């Protein structure tokens, strides 16, 4: 199912082709592309300070994914109830 979505969204990479071959799935309808790399712009970063006082530059997408994950986990787990925290991590 995941490979079909990649194909329909035209997001095929060499890894998708490798997985398709390993799974014995039919050929993709779209062409396999390459992975494009680029330097991130300054506005795509978020500066945070760690517990030791050092400033770290994080990718904003990764930063907000981490914040969103923590928000979900803390919102669904109960304080000091490790099994509920583990369940919310697993369900995320």
Give the topology:
Elements: H1 2-8, H2 14-23, E1 45-49, E2 55-59, H3 60-76, H4 82-91
Helix pairs in contact: 3-4
Question: How would you state the average pLDDT, rounded?
Answer: 81
How much of the sequence lies in strands comes to: 5-15%
What is the β-strand count?
Answer: 2
In one word, what is the shape?
flat
Helix content: 40-55%
Poorly predicted residue ranges: none
Q: What is the radius of gyration computed over CA atoms, rounded to a whole number of angstroms? A: 19 Å
Structural class of the secondary structure composition? Answer: mainly alpha
How many separate helices?
Answer: 4
Instruction: Measure the end-to-end span.
Output: 20 Å
Account of the protein in words:
The protein has helices spanning 2-8, 14-23, 60-76, 82-91; strands spanning 45-49, 55-59. By secondary structure, it is mainly alpha-helical. The chain has a two-stranded antiparallel ribbon. The chain has four helices and two strands, in the order H-H-E-E-H-H. Helix 3 crosses helix 4.
């Amino acid at each position: 199912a995941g490979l079909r979505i990649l194909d329909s969204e035209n997001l095929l990479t060499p890894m998708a082709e490798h997985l398709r071959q390993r799974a014995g799935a039919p050929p993709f309808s779209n062409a396999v592309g390459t992975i494009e790399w680029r330097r991130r712009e300054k506005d795509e970063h978020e500066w945070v300070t760690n517990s030791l006082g050092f400033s770290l530059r994080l990718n904003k997408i990764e930063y907000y994914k981490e914040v969103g994950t923590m928000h979900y986990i803390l919102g669904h787990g109960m304080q000091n109830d490790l099994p509920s925290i583990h369940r919310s991590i697993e369900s995320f």
